Amino acid sequence: MTPLLEAAALTRTFGARRAVDGVSLALAAGEALALFGPNGAGKTTLLRLLAGLLKPGAGSAHVAGQPLPSVPARARVGLISHRTMLYDALSARENVRFAARLHALPDAAGATQSALEALRVADRADVPVRALSRGLQQRVAIARAVVHSPDVILADEPYTGLDEQGSAALTALLRERRVAGAALVVVTHHLQEGLAVASHAAIMRQGRFVRQEATDGLDASVYAATYRELVA
Amino acid sequence: MNTAPPGLLAAAWLIARKDLAIEFRTRSAFLSALVLSLLSLVIFYFAWDPTAVAALDVAPGILWVTFTFSGLLGLHRSFGVEAQERAMDALLVAPVPRESIFLGKAFANLVFVLGVQLVALPALALFYNLPFGTVVSSLALVMVLAAIGLVCVGTLFAGITANTRMAELLLPVLALPFFVPIVLPAATATARLLAGRPLAESMAWLRILLAFDLVFLYACTIAFPFTLED
Amino acid sequence: MTSTPSARARAGIDWFALVAIVAMGAAFVRAIVFTPPDRLQGFAQKIFYVHLPSAWVAFLAFGLTAIAGGVWLFLKDPRLDRFAESSAEVGVIFTTGVLISGPLWGKPIWGAWWVWDARLTLTLFLWFLYLGYLVLRSAVDDREARARYSAVVGILGALLIPFIHLSVYIFRTQHPTPIVANPTGIQMPGVMITTLFLALGAFTLLYVALVRARMRLASERDALLDQAAAESTP
Predict the structure, then answer these.
(1) Is the same domain home to A132 and A20?
(2) One domain, residues A154 and A143
(3) Is the Cβ pair B227, C149 closer than 8 Å?
């Protein structure tokens, strides 16, 4: 069976700097990779490569067998970045509904409402995004990214700015998507948060995966020690 | 969920509607462009000696200079809203053809430019005491043909300059030479129409405008994805 | 000629540039000393041997810039972008030459320094167009993005030129009708034609020499930037 998300020897250089250097990964349905690493390790670049926003210098990425950045591959991807990617003059509902329509969802309004409810922002959905706090904006951003129930969710520091309620809603959502058969890549600095939703974990440094393992029975404190050892 | 992604024009329409909704909410760019248009019409009036030159001779030039510069103001805003929170990334990940982003933005800009013109043209007639009534439909044709070409090139360049330093300055420097084959025919045709000559006499100019529109609509739509592929 | 000291040290003497300079000198000497003055225009006509070859090189340079940009979009070879950059810059210099030599001739013949003649106007817009191109290049730091944007602008610029030409031409024309590329055949004494073609050849050689030197400079600059980037990353 073809993996849902597959990358083969992805490489991307900026000038002479190799931001991502020969990264390969394969995630099947229901698998989630938590990606850790210091600043400048290439995590964001890798995520942008997997979203089809950057072209790899070498290697390739596929979503359900479709090459990126083709339209059928992009249709299955949901991207959460550390920028909200929202239009601040429009309301939360308008932002999410716009995304739903770009994905040609048959019931755009219904999908919008349930995404907003899942992130618990439905009651503030009709004021301009500009008027919302950073944390609420982040929830709207997540709702926008998952409104089309993507098969592949790529999340770059998705917990940034979220309060406890927001974090809990996000964790619940990510787990639910996993059960529903989605593949996840979550980039975060916070080991606990990452491991809470992951089936696999990887540590990235200088553009490469320096460690990659399944997280079943992985003890967070032991892993933290490993991380410090590798990154320090 | 597997639904067929929207087609080129459907996606372009969604993006244009979104841009127009944002502009309608804030109105900041539209109002600035409008005020700039009216201001420049007024300022040109004071630089003009009505005893030496007839209004019919200066009006076309004033109209098209005003039109060009107020248009640039709207074009610049077009990609600004995408850059602010990197909303452009979301558009690029969405399953829509790259070309539809260009077409949508160009269409929204066309509405913007024509909207400004809808106010500026009667203002010109009022301030310079010109009889537009009889030629208004021919003039509208020239306006629309010129606006299409202006918006095609302008939208593409706004997309390019949005990613550069000093975008506000670079856009006019880059775009104005491209507006020569628009402004020159349009201003000449306007002058002839205002002088009461039949539209048929300006056909050569209209053909240049039409050819420009077709060539650059096609070329810019094809070129736009090349400005993105990172 | 314009190569950096290190490039000269590595490459030795730029023989090509030397040949171009000698050819330029020969063309000028022949034009001034050995070619008879025009019966009607007198000495002013000599400017023609600078004006027309400059215009030729300007159009050649911008045409090649557009082509190099177009090919870059498919091959992504940095050398093509360095060529486009160099050719556009050299092209602007020769366009400036056209814009200066035109009025120098226009003053005695047309009686005014600047005349809004169709060809001169076209050249002026060409000059603005490619100055814009160079300003754009200077405003983008990322090398690949810079190449991408300038390729697109270069191609659209080439598409634009016929439109500007057409519109300014219908608008007004005062330029002497082409004497060389005239459908009724070349209307000039043979000795003048020989001089003209010598000048055309010499200017083309100079263009190639300048672009070569400018490309060396560009590739050294890129190498230095790469080196700096490599040193700044741990």
Answers:
(1) no
(2) no
(3) yes
Integer Cα distance of B179 and B185 in angstroms: 10
Q: Which residues of C touch B61 (CB under 8 A)?
A: none
Report the run of H or E that residue B230 belongs to, with start and end.
none
Structural domain total, chain A? 2
The pair phi, psi for residue C38, each rounded to 5°, is: -65, 145
Same-domain pairing of A14 and A70: yes
Range of the domain at B57: 8-228
Any chain B CB within 8 A of the CB of C139? yes
Highest mean pLDDT among A190-199, A211-220, C79-88: C79-88
Instruction: Give the model's pLDDT for residue C176.
Output: 60
Answer whether B188's CB lies under 8 Å from B167's CB. no
pLDDT bucket at A1, cuts 50 / 70 / 90? low
Q: For residues B81, A83, B91 and A2, what is the CA-based torsion angle, rounded to 10 degrees?
A: 180
A48: CATH: 3.40.50.300
On whether residue B2 sits in a domain, the answer given is no
Q: What's the mean per-residue pLDDT of chain A?
A: 90
For residue B30, being part of any structural domain is answered with: yes
- Residue A71 shares a structural domain with residue A178: yes
Summarize pLDDT for B68-97 with one digit per residue, the tens.
988 888 888 888 888 888 999 999 999 999
Range of the domain at A72: 1-76+150-162+170-232
* Any B CB within 8 A of C158 CB: no
Contacts by C158-163, CB closer than 8 A, 24 or more apart: C158/C62, C158/C63, C158/C66, C159/B215, C159/B216, C159/B219, C160/B177, C160/B178, C160/B181, C160/C129, C161/C62, C161/C122, C161/C126, C163/B180, C163/B181, C163/B208, C163/B211, C163/B212, C163/B215
Q: Which residue of C has its CA nearest to A19?
A: C233
Q: Which residues of C touch A16 (CB under 8 A)?
A: 226-227, 229-230
**Nearest residue of C to residue A15 by CA position?**
C226
Whether C151 and chain B come into contact, CB under 8 Å, resolves to: yes
pTM as predicted: 0.89
> What ranges do the domains of chain C cover?
5-223
